[in-house]
Description:
338 residues, single chain, mainly alpha
Amino acid sequence: MRKHAIAGAGQDAQLHYSKQSKIWTKSFILAIFVVSILAVISLFTGVYDIRGQEDGWEMFFITRVPRTIALILTGAAMAMAGLVMQLITQNRFVEPTTTGTIEWAGLGLLLVYLLVPAPSLVLRMSGAILFSFIGTMIFFLFLRRVRLRSSLIVPIIGLMLGAVISSVSTFLGLFFQMSQVVENWFVGSFTSVQVGRYEYLWIIVIVTILIFIYANKLTLAGLGEDISTSLGVNYNGLILLANALIAVAVGVVAAVIGNLPFLGLIVPNIVSLFRGDDLRTNLPWVCVIGMGTIMVSDIISRTIIMPFEVPVSLILGTMGAVVFIVILLRQRKTRRVS
């Protein structure tokens, strides 16, 4: 009787895993459909009357289409970066905003402006990617030296590092009279997106493919150095690869759009709440929900005080702060019950 019970439990677990491992489910198709509707709403949301003006449809393809594509790619990039960072640090509160990665990208942009007058987008993007990688590696070096790795200590370390780097950027901006660069970067917005100014965001597609290819190994790396090494995985090499992919995604977004806080915190936590922590099966969900989240935020930013526009970073920051508090309270309640 006991053997039958164990076998039945094993079959139930296997059936549950097979359901979770499927990507093209009805719920996922529904999520794609909802995001598609949001994309259509985004295309036709704005002050400029594209149907009532002679050059309306020309402006539609110059500004509206690039903006919607940029929203889709950016949402996927930042949500995906948060997912990978949470996996390899084994911490729900880690994402580019809470590790200082975003602030390092801003410092890289500022230094490029100081060294090269009127730098091209490629130079700005290169500086942001390089400093994002450096900042993420410094965060991991700090993390290795911290013995107490509670769920709150890790993001506190990241926030402290980010605050220091942000102060350095502010000081350099004021000292060299480049504070406008810092201010423009801090206010993440899609208002300047148009044809010729967003195409480098397509690099995010390559990053997504690489993360999907290495998904199983990155999942093993998320188990910790000892376990992953015993399973034959090059832990240090995977950490370098993960940091490089995160740096590319964050750097490209920082150079083209600016600071987009908490997106990498909101989405992976919502997905993990319902689907667990498997990177390969969660990645499509995280990308799709990331797209939907940022499109909702952008639509709100364009309509809340129309004809004016609120920076999308303000909407994301507000939503992210609320979700952050909810996760904290939920985790505290779980600990009390246990």
